[in-house]
């Protein structure tokens, strides 16, 4: 359970540390991004050597989801 103080602490999602194969990791990361977005919690993403810093807002959420969708293509 989260405390009131930690409810808005930034979080960085690292799909490669989530359980399952790549598709399951990306699906879980997408779910987490949407969950934290609804909670107005700053969320970032680490993909391989790339870090997208935590932020909030719909534009940022769409950026993170786009990065996940393109991950591993090319």
Characterization of the model:
The chain has 74 residues and is an alpha+beta fold. The chain has one domain. 41% of the residues lie in helices and 19% in strands. It has 2 helices and 3 strands. A 3-stranded mixed β-sheet has the order 1-2-3, with helices on one face. α1 packs antiparallel against α2. 12% of the residues are buried. The mean pLDDT is 91.
Short summary:
This protein has 74 residues and is α+β, with helices and mostly antiparallel strands.
Give me the secondary-structure category: alpha+beta
Number of helices: 2
Order of helices and strands: EHEEH
Share of β-strand residues: 15-25%
Q: What is the gyration radius calculated from CA atoms? A: 12 Å
| Biggest sheet architecture | 3 strands, mixed
Structurally, the number of domains stands at 1
How far from one another are the termini?
39 Å
Strand order of the largest sheet: 1-2-3
Summarize model confidence as the mean pLDDT. 91
- Helical residue percent band: 40-55%
Shape: globular
Number of strands: 3
Low-confidence stretches: none
